What does this fold into?
Amino acid sequence: MKFAIIGGTGLIGSQVVRKLNEAGHEAVPHSPSTGVDLLTGQGLDSALDGADVVVNLTNSPTFDDASPAFFRTSMDNLVAAAKKAGTGHFVILSIVGVDQVPELDYYQAKTLQEDILENSGVPYSIVRATQFMEFVDAVLSWTADETTVRLPSTPIQPIAAADVAAAVSEISAGKPLNGILDVGGPDVYPLAELGRITLAAKKDTRSVTADETAGMFAAVQGDVLTTKDGARIAETRYLDWLE
It folds into this structure.
């Protein structure tokens, strides 16, 4: 099959392209560097020409209240191009529990992206992943100073980007789910504990202070960012990934 991977040069996209090509498919990466502009629609018709499947792995350039407009415009343009090309399967990557955190602008924006796809009339699959292991350092940096990292106790279920890419690749090559698949890592940690584990592994001498008001994840109530029954659980453990 032929796949158009929008955002195919990023962390997940580049791995999806490689996995699909290794499986004998034709997966073509598309991004601004290849002349595709989701906000203007430039290059989309050419990118989707002859594609059996379109996989949208792009992300908003910001996580603030500008992000809904990005996903509205980009999805409207991409859905229109997919219909014009007769694409039979449209896949996006989203976030586990994304519709349960209305306090976060970015999560509202990703929920909007899902809604647009679900109501597009194009056969689709949504893969929702838990928080990437690769992003833990960035999360710690949001609320850190020279001596202390402040983190809430929000339950986090880290998953390796490689495991996310494997799930996206498999779902993309199959029949449309016309629904959602959740994927997550094998272990759940309070974010503050995850911070301590991470700093210890990196021999970082800063301390972690539990603070339920610190950072973006302070807005999350309960365990909504962790998988429930029916989810696919990846094998890579965070402690092994750190090594």
